[in-house]
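chain below, 304 aa
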Amino acid sequence: MGESLRAQERSRLTVFFVVVVAAMAAAGGVAFGQADGGGEAAQPVAVEAAMPPWRDLERAQQDLEIAMTARETVQAAMDRTFDELHLELARLDQLSDVDTGKQLLQEEAERLVVQEYMSGGDREDLAFILGVSEATDALWREALLSEVSEVVAQALDARQNVAGERERTEARAKRLDEALPYLSSRLVDAEASVEAAEWVVYIAQINDMADRELAENGFIEPTEQQWHNLRWCESRNRYAIESSNGLFYGAYQFEPRTWRTVGGAGNPAHAPPEEQDARARLLYSRRGDQPWPREYCGRWLPVN
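prediction:
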C-alpha cells in the first residue's frame, strides 16, 4: 500500500488524549529537553484513563484474523467474478462462430431455393411462368420450393435462437463486468484494514513485552495520567517535537541511542504516537524512571 494510505489508516486508529490548556499559546517559545522539567508555570490537565486497542495483544490478533478473513472473502468473490466473466466472454466468441455458421447455412439454403427454382423448367416454360400472375403460378412455385423451404426455416430459427442466447450472455457479462470495480474497491478497503490491524498487532506486541518485563522487574505501572504528565513536562505532549539542542526527540524526548535499545528505528519524533507510547513503556519496564531523572520530569512517574 502507499505511504499516504498507510498514514491515513494509522491516523484512524490513533487514540489521542486531548489536552486543553489556557497557556498553550505561551508554551511555543519554551525550549524542550531534559532541562525543561523544573517549571511549574503550566501544569498538565487531568486526562481520562483509557485502554487503547494496541494494549491488548489477544484482541489485536483476533481483529487481524477477522480482517484477513474478510480480505480473503472479497478476494475469492473477485476471483469468481473474473472466472465467470471469462467464461461468458468465451461463450460469446463461440456464439459468434455459431452465428456465422448459421448465416452461411441460411445463405446456402437460400441459394438452393434459387437453384431449385431455376431448374424447375426449361427457358420457355420459365419465361412463361414468370410472366403470368394467376393463382396457378403461386401454387406451382410453392410446390416447387416445398422441399428446400423447410431447410431455410430451420436455418432462420437457429439464427434467432443464437441471437437470443447471445443477448442473454451479453447481459450476464455486463453484470459481471460492472461488479468488478465495486469488488476492487472493497478489496482495497480490505487490504487497508489488514494493514491497519497488522500495525495494531505490531504495537500490541511491544506493549505485551513491556507488560511481561514490568512484572519481571517489579516496577509499578504508571497510570495514563502519569504518562500524560511526563509527556507534558518533556515536550508539552508534542510527539513530533525535536529539542533545540538536537539531542532529544519526540513526546518522551528519547535520545536516538536509547530509542534503538527498545527496538526503535529512525528518528523517534517521526514515529507515530502509539509507537512512541509503547516504546516508552518498554523502556520504563526495563529501567524504571532512570531515563527521566526525578529532579526533572521523572517526578511524575511512580516511586518504585
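Residues 1-41, 120-140 have pLDDT under 50 and may be disordered. The first helix runs from residue 3 to 13.
thats it, cya
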